Amino acid sequence: MARAISKRRTVIVTILAWTIGLLIFFPILWTVITSFKTEAEAIADPPSLFWFNWTLENYNVVNARSNYPLHFMNSVIISLGSTLIGLAIAVPAAWSMAFVPSKQTKNILMWMLSTKMLPSVGVLIPIYLISRNLGLLDSRIALVVILTLINLPIIVWMLYTYFKEIPIDILEAARMDGASLKSEILYILTPMALPGIASTMLLNIILAWNEAFWTLNLTAAKAAPLTAFIASYSSPEGLFYAKLSAASTMAIAPILIMGWFSQKQLVRGLTFGAVK
Amino acid sequence: MSTQHSRSAARIMIAPATFLLLAWMLIPLCMTLYYSFRRYRLLTPDRQGWVGFRNYENFLTNPAFTSALINTLVLVLGVLIITVVLGILLAILLDQPFKGQGIVRILVIAPFFVMPTVSALVWKNMFMNPVNGLFAYAAKAVGLEPYDFLSQAPLMSIIGIVSWQWLPFATLILLTAIQSLDSEQMEAAEMDGASALNRFWFITLPHLSRAITVVILIQTIFLLSIFAEILVTTNGGPGTASTNLTYLVYAESLLNYDVGEGSAGGVVAIILANIVAIFLMRAIGKNLDA
Q: Domain map of chain B by residue range?
C-alpha cells in the first residue's frame, strides 16, 4: 500500500518537475531553435517549434557581417586573462592564510569581502576618467585589470575554503618520512589543491564572461566582448530575431556548458563558503 | 610549527592581493569623493571649481532620485520575494526522488549562466515584444489584446526578467541546504503524525533559515547594481519609470556628462550599499566562526 502511493507520487513529482524545468529552460531553448530559422519563419504567426526548414544561414551571416570572431576572442582573452592573473595573485595569499593563519587572517578575509560591497557605479567615474587619461578606453587591458580586481575577493575566498580542507597533518607525516619542502609542495599539496583551483578557475571564467557593467561602459567597437556586442542588437537591428538568436546562442553556449560542470562550486563560490 | 620565518613568508604572500585590493578600493573612492564636491562637466572641462555640497543637493532634490530610489527598492524586494518563495518550493520539489533528476537540475540552473545582455534582449524581443513576441501570439491566440510589457509595466517586466536569471541561484543554494537536512528527523516527525505543512513549517524552514539569509544578502548586492538589463530593455524609461540608482548615476555622468553630480550619486549609492553590507558581513562573519 505504502509502495503504491509512493509510486504514484513519484510519477506526479516527475511530471511536475519536468514541466517546470522545461518552462524555466524554454527561453534558452527557443533562442537556440530560432537561430536555425529564416527571418520570416522567426516571426511567423503562429510560431513553429520544430517544423520548419532548419538552416545555418544565420550563423554564417553573423560571423561574416559583424566581426563576431573578434568579439568572441575579446571575451576569451578578458575572462581567461583576468582569471589567470587573479589566480596568480590569489593562490599565494589563500595558501598562506589557510596554512599559516594569524590573528589577522579573519580580518583580512572579511575586509577583502567588504571590497566586493562597493557598488561598481560608485567608482564608475574615476575608473572611466583614469582609463580615458591613460588611453585605455576600449582596450582589453583595462578590462582584464578591472575584472581581475573585481573578482579577486571571490577567488581568494574560494581558494581559502578549499585549502582549509586539506588536512595539515598529512604534511607532518610526510616530514617525518623525510620529505623535503619541495617534494612536500610538489607531490602532496599540489595534487590536493588542484581540484579546488580548477573549480575556482571555472567559476571565475563564468563570472568574468558574463560581467556586464564595466564591459558595457568601457568598451566600444574594438575591445567589446560578447556582452557589449550583443547589447548593440538592442538597436532596431534586434528585430532580426534569427540573427539575434544565432549571436546569442554562440555567446552563451560555451559558458552554459562550463556552468553545468560547475554547479557545486557555484554554491560554494558565490556564498563565500557559507553554504557548501 | 609556524616559525618566525614562515610567518614573514606568509605575509609576503598575502601582500600583493591586499595591496592591490586596497589600491582598487581607496584610489577610486577618494576620486569619487573629490569630484563629488567639484563642478566638472565633461563638455566644459575648463570650468572647474569647488562647489561644496551643491552636487549632492542637485542629485538628492532631482525628482528622478526619489523615483530611482523607489524603483531600486521595488526591484530588489520584488526579485527577492519571487526568487526566495519560488526557490524554496522548487528546491523541495527537486529534492524528491524522480526520474531524470540530474537533467531537470541542469535545465533549472541554466538561466544563471546566460549573460545579462542576452537574457534581456531575448525577453524583450522574442517574448515581450507587442507585435512579434511569443506572449503577443499567445494573447492573440486566445483572443486578447497583446500587451506592451516594457512600455506599460517596465519595472514589473524587468523584475520578471531578473527573477528568471536569479531563480536558479536561489534554487541551487536552497536545494544544497535541503539535502543536508537530517532525514531521520523528518521520518520521526512523520511517525508522530506531523502534517506535511507542519513538517515544512517547523523543520524544513528553520533548517533553511541560514541558506535563505545568505541568498537574500548575496542577491541584494547584485540586485542593487542591476544595469545591463535596464540599459538593453528600456533605457530607464519611459521617463524614469524603470530607472534605478545605478542607472541614474550612469545617466548623469556618462549621458549628461556631469561628473560632479554623477560622483555625488555614486557616493550616495555607496552609502546605501554599505548599510546593506553591514548586515551581510555579520551573517557571513558568524558563519566563519562556526
A: 1-36, 51-289
CB contact under 8 A, B93 and A93: no
* B2, pLDDT greater than 70: no
Retrieve residue B28's grid coordinates.
577610486
Mutate which of B121, B142, B207 to test chain A, going by most A C-beta atoms within 10 A?
Answer: B121
Residues 212-251 of A with CB under 8 A from B: 212-213, 216-217, 226-228, 230-231, 233-234, 238-239, 241, 244-245, 248, 251
State the Cα–Cα distance between residues A269 and A266, nearest whole angstrom: 5
For chain A, report the end-to-end CA distance as a whole number of angstroms: 37
ipTM attached to this prediction: 0.87
Q: How far apart (Å, rounded) are the C-alpha atoms in residues A172 and B205? A: 43
- Per-residue model confidence as pLDDT tens digits over A110-168: 888 778 778 888 888 889 989 999 998 899 999 999 999 999 998 998 899 888 888 87
What are the structural domains, with CATH classification, of chain A? Answer: 2-59 (no CATH), 66-270 (1.10.3720.10)
Angle (CA) A164 A167 A170, round 5°: 145
Of B30, B22, B262, B31, the closest CA to residue A126 belongs to B31
> In this structure, is the dihedral angle defined by the CA atoms of residues B279, B283, B288 and B290, taken in order, positive or negative?
positive
Mutation target vs B (from A7, A29, A125; most B CBs, 10 A cutoff): A125
Distances (CA, A) of B147 to A218, B152, B159: 35, 8, 16
**SS3 of residue A53 by DSSP:** coil
Of A125, A230, A260, nearest to B263 by CB-CB distance is A125
Whether residue B1 is predicted with pLDDT greater than 70 in this model: the reply is no
pLDDT, one tens digit per residue, over B106-146 is: 999 999 999 999 999 999 988 998 888 889 888 888 888 88
Looking at CATH, the fold of the domain delimited by B51-289 is given as MetI-like fold (1.10.3720)
